[in-house]
Fold these 2 entries.
Entry 1:
Amino acid sequence: MSYHPGRHFLQIPGPSNTPLPVLAAIAKPTIDHRGPEFGKLGREVLAGIRTIFKTEKPVVIYPASGTGAWEAALLNTLSPGDRVIMFETGWFSTLWSRMASKLGIEAEVIPGDWRHGVDAGAIGALLAEDKEKRIKAVCVVHNETSTGVASGIPAVRRAIDAAGHPALLIVDTISSLGSIDYRHDEWGVDVTVGGSQKGLMLPPGLSFNAVSDKARAAAKTAKLPRSFFDWEEMFAINDKGFFPYTPSTNLLQGLKVAIDMLHEEGLDNVFARHDRAAEATRRCVRHWGLEIQCADPAEYSSVLTAIRLPEGHSADALRAEILERSNMSLGNGLGPLADKAFRIGHLGDFHDLMVTGVLTGVEMGLRARGIPHRAGGVAAAMDYLGGNRGAMAAAAE
Ligand SMILES: *Cc1c(COP(=O)(O)O)cnc(C)c1O
């Protein structure tokens, strides 16, 4: 590939674009992770990250991708042979359930169609049948990054409570944290799993477990073997701002700035900005006449939109065309959606002009590949973002 002038558009649904102040913080010299300067940084990020999870409880930070924090959540709370309920929302929930099986956990996966979110009623029904309380946890993905479907977590909590079941609630927020409203304490979640490279606007390499008192108590008797991921090793030294092994010092420098930036904008404003980018994208896609993978408007993800191509057209060829033509990376279709769908990430450090730029690149790609669509989708997005009330009313009719 020859040199591409202009800035690369990284529009996969994570890793997202890292803002310059975060990159600058990461580029600062590495400091002594046992020294006083680090202790202060450690205390700041360990306190700061709680405000993003909306929890008063401790948050463990691992030098690992999100997959590591998935594993940590299971290892710290479960014993070999324990039963858990998982819900097949898409590729990421499937990977997580495979991991559970590899770890010796009996994962009962409720099948899904990859177009809808978690069915809390189906979870509640399984829990109600479990008279002996053998099910130890319910594990769900908040924002399924393979499909662009966001599930309601409070409904899952209510289903567990309505069944009077003691199972832990474990939630993957790797692609929603910092982009879609999330409340670890208020929603009664026991372990929340997060990652650095999506809504938190950092490069990959950090991941998180927010831990409720109930989860911490479960860890006392959980027998899956763990060492690197052991929460108690972290808790023992995190109070002073330190870690049991060398943390990702420079990424933590970036995390401090990213947390400050999220609060400077205001979390509610951040969420509203994501909602807006997502709505503009969907208006554009509908104008093109292409199909959105998420089947229920109540479950649309504000982080990404997965778009299906008409039969006989290759989503991978479209993405390759757009990369070559416009220097923009889009997400591929995962699992059964491979080559059938592509994903537009609209998350993290992102504004209106980037939304229209991204959509313009996609529309040019559709034209170049001869994929049937109604031209002018970007104008529909502009009408929405620019607040053209007349056009919006017409579109609603
Ligand atoms: C990205 C992602 C993961 C995997 O995280 P890695 O950082 O790639 O290990 C897991 N779950 C969801 C929902 C994700 O979006």
Entry 2:
Amino acid sequence: MDPERGSREYKDYDAEPERESLLHSTNTIHSEPVPHSCYTRPRFGVNHLLISFVAGTLACFLAQYAICGSSCFSYHPGNAAAAPVATEPLRVLASPWAGSTERHNFPPTTPTNAFPSLFPTNVGYAGGTPTGAEPAVIATAPSYPIHSGAPVLVTPESTNYGILRKWGNLSPWYSVDRTAFGLDSSPETPETCRVTGLHFLHRHGARYPTAYASYGGPAKLASRLGAAASKWTASGDLAFMNEWTYKLGEEVLTPFGRQQLFDLGISMRMKYGFLLKNFTETNTIPVFRTESQDRMLASAMNFAIGFFGYPFEGQYQQSITIEAAGFNNTLAPYKTCPNSNDKSKSDRGRAYVEKWAGVYLKDAQARLTPQLVGYDLSIEDVYVFQQMCAYETVALGYSKFCELFTEEEWDGFDYSLDLYFWYNSGFGFPLARSLGIGYVQELVARLTHTPIETHNSSTNATLNDNPITFPLGQSLYVDATHEVVVLHVLAALNLSTLAAQGPLPADHIPANRSFKVSELAPFATNVQFQLLECTSQPGPQIRIIVNDGVVPLTGIEGCPEQKDGMCPVDKFVAAEKDIIGQTDWIYDCHGDWGIPDGWSTTTGEPPRS
Ligand SMILES: *[C@@H]1O[C@H](CO)[C@@H](O)[C@H](O)[C@H]1NC(C)=O
Ligand SMILES: *[C@@H]1O[C@H](CO)[C@@H](O)[C@H](O)[C@H]1NC(C)=O
Ligand SMILES: *[C@@H]1O[C@H](CO)[C@@H](O)[C@H](O)[C@H]1NC(C)=O
Ligand SMILES: *[C@@H]1O[C@H](CO)[C@@H](O)[C@H](O)[C@H]1NC(C)=O
Ligand SMILES: *[C@@H]1O[C@H](CO)[C@@H](O)[C@H](O)[C@H]1NC(C)=O
Ligand SMILES: *[C@@H]1O[C@H](CO)[C@@H](O)[C@H](O)[C@H]1NC(C)=O
């Protein structure tokens, strides 16, 4: 579905680490915007077109410097095709570089004033450093603190219906409605109980677009617009595009994404700091896990500085597992599962998104087309405008693209991501259970304090069988991963109440859907596996809390209906062991199976012949 990339490339929006972007296929420009007085002047003689790109940019720079003076120290050569536009300065055409890529490349590689020896990092004289008691908000406060969004991001006033929550996996995480998953409960400690442990699984924070996009893809649209910049003119709601450049990088965290993880670390310390007492008593420190990918490591570091404060060295140990082809890794399980590279099995979601976009974006396409004369605006382009809104907002703090759509169209966008991830990652994805089972095996090992029996999925014996790198007796675990893996894990756990609607249709949004990606797998999404002891319940209990919403465990065999979503740990473990036993990694990941027409799954398993 993505002709520019090899068919062996992994398909998802999020977990794709490679960097062979299409971004660089046009003559993109890495510089500051030019003041208006500079770019309205003709900057290209005909002879410039004949010079090579590099020579051309240099000549242009010199010429422009002469025209604009020292206040105009940057340049925008555009591309050859665009140049003739500048000879008609009175026509209101898109700027020759509209759609081109702008990069600022901070920090400079060899700054002239960098003298680390003059800036020692440890000068002593810290003053007194006594610490106090650990906070325990989930036990001590009368209510649970709600995380409502993103104070540093600006959205248009016309979208005050909560546009940030209508972006599927691109939404910043927020506390879902108390009853979102069907239970009237909340994460604070139920009466008669005390919390004894926490297994915390979270996603990285807001990032730039990934290098790969199955449908849409901001960089691809920027390339198309940039290549055709001399041909199109925008007006009306789209007039801003005449001066617009593409400013997004790839893959890495945005400043806001950094804040999300820092805040998450602080909020978890406030809620569960008391669990650290257990480490002091046993003379140990926690082990948190993340992966090698830049945004994964940066997310874990920001979480740690929020959770432990600066400096965090010595307070915990960070396991950085390798996310790369061939490495067993439960937090990046697709890297050893060949069938997840087969698009006929792993990218069925694209067709659903495409079909649905053709329904909900029809009006928008008709509305926007006359405002972009000279460019053939496809449904997919309009879809990218919506992606652009989300990405620009979480990267740059505001996006003009957000103003272009109605609330209903944002609901449509949100649903397009439900479709995509239902079929490509969650309960509707035939590899979900296998890809999620490694983490479930680890969870069971930790809950039972018993090493993993057989390494026959994505688990890594070297790490998992070593009690230092994979401790079993701790009261607090923190693991960082991708949204696709969170969705695999929710499916592998058999949280079937989240899949109650069954296969999602591509022609309308079903009422009361229980599978909403903006609630399950947004940026910095987080799952609390809370362990409790209660005088009202026999034996240790577990409950699962996704983005502060308590998930019913009644779909898991042996788990009773319980108003706070609790299940006895032994019942839970027995059911999960059952599912582990039913899972066949070799068949699922290596088997030669196909998907019959009309076949579907709601348990994340492949067809069995
Ligand atoms: C297990 O993880 C370690 C550390 O990341 C890595 O060196 C090793 O290659 C992995 N083993 C397998 C079989 O992938
Ligand atoms: C890696 O995973 C494969 C497939 O499950 C398994 O056969 C192998 O033993 C694992 N290797 C390690 C070191 O865990
Ligand atoms: C610490 O926590 C672990 C895991 O919950 C538990 O097994 C152990 O008894 C606790 N130790 C102390 C000293 O509280
Ligand atoms: C949606 O939920 C409401 C309230 O729970 C219920 O009354 C209604 O029948 C449900 N609709 C569908 C289509 O399931
Ligand atoms: C998994 O979920 C399905 C569907 O709700 C249910 O029939 C099955 O019993 C569950 N299995 C286990 C082991 O929990
Ligand atoms: C993997 O090992 C477990 C025992 O730890 C077993 O129940 C399960 O069936 C095995 N899966 C495969 C695919 O061999």
